[in-house]
Design a protein that fits this description.
The chain has 148 residues and is an alpha+beta fold. It contains four helices and five strands, in the order βααβββαβα. A five-stranded mixed sheet has the order 1-2-3-4-5, with helices on both faces. The radius of gyration is 15 Å and the shape is globular. It comes from Mesorhizobium huakuii. Keywords: Acyltransferase, Transferase.
Length: 148
């Protein structure tokens, strides 16, 4: 049986991280300049309570998934909230538990510091991901607005 391993991102993951994040951005029909890749990678390893963090998932030793998450303050709680910002599993391994394992890793990491609220967004057309999300979390009913 194949073994899924989820671990914190390491500096040595740069090539795999860039490949997976590029595939994630492509899925959402988005391109980012190289400067954003560079600053994001740097931030993932910058110490600080509110700096983003990440996990890499491997299956049989191959990098197949990633997630980025960050903590932020809330006016509704003494503890921070955890925003799971990006979640991606290689299409070749979807349905094998990669996404669920990454979500669980973020949940467990947040719990270590007393954070109970882990949340994320997805596009309404992302039906594959929504099947997983409907299984592992509750849908809040909130609708996102932004000022782009």
């Amino acid at each position: 049986m194949s073994e899924i391993i989820v671990r914190p991102l390491a500096q040595s993951d740069h090539a795999d991280w860039k490949r997976l994040w590029t595939d994630y951005l492509t899925f959402y029909e988005t391109k980012l300049p190289e400067e954003v890749y560079a600053v994001t990678w740097k931030r993932l390893f910058t110490e600080g309570e509110f700096e983003p963090k990440g996990f890499m998932a491997t299956l049989d030793g191959k990098a197949v998934g990633l997630t980025h998450y960050l903590y932020h303050r809330s006016g509704w709680s003494e503890k921070n909230n955890c925003y799971l910002q990006d979640l991606f599993a290689d299409p070749d391994v979807r349905g094998k538990g990669i996404g669920a394992a990454l979500i669980n890793a973020v949940k467990q990491e947040a719990a270590k510091i007393g954070v109970k609220n882990v949340y994320w967004m997805t596009h309404e057309t992302n039906t594959t991901a929504r099947k997983l999300y409907d299984h592992v979390a509750r849908r809040t009913g909130f609708i996102e607005y932004d000022l782009l």
